[in-house]
Amino acid sequence: MGRLTTHVLDTAAGKPAAGLRVVFKVLDRPAGQPVEAFTNQDGRLDQPLLEGAAFQPGRYELLFHVGDYFRAQGVTLADPAFLDIVPIRFGISEEAHYHVPLLVSPYGYSTYRGS
Predict the structure, then answer these.
(1) Alpha-carbon dihedral of residues 14, 10, 105, 48, nearest 10 degrees?
(2) For the segment 65-110, what is each residue's pLDDT rounded down to a tens digit?
(3) What is the set of domains in the chain, with CATH numbers?
(4) Is residue 54 helix, strand or coil?
(5) E strand or H helix at 69, and its extent?
(6) What's the rounded Cα separation, in Å, for the pair 50 and 1?
(7) How far are the Cα atoms of 40, 59, 73, 106, 107 from residue 13, in angstroms, in the given order?
């Protein structure tokens, strides 16, 4: 069975990014409202973003609200911040576990398809 998960690591602080807002959107078919969630103490969402019948091939987007997260951590950011919302657009082509992590600091980020 396929499922989609994510987590966020604050590489500047060397810890999970707890309390970071994540918005999930389906891009290529009607899917209703975007899903909004916040990362837990481990930097993960409490529930998969997709699983079961909702898990289908297609194009998707994750919006990570990193500027708000860093401000809440007391980090002084430029105005406007270099990174505010980090969008990651990706495709799902097979029934599998897709894990899309974000490693982020105020001035850079990386992602990959995890397992």
Answers:
(1) 150
(2) 999 999 999 999 999 999 999 999 999 999 999 999 999 999 999 9
(3) 3-108 (2.60.40.180)
(4) helix
(5) helix 66-72
(6) 11
(7) 16, 32, 10, 10, 13
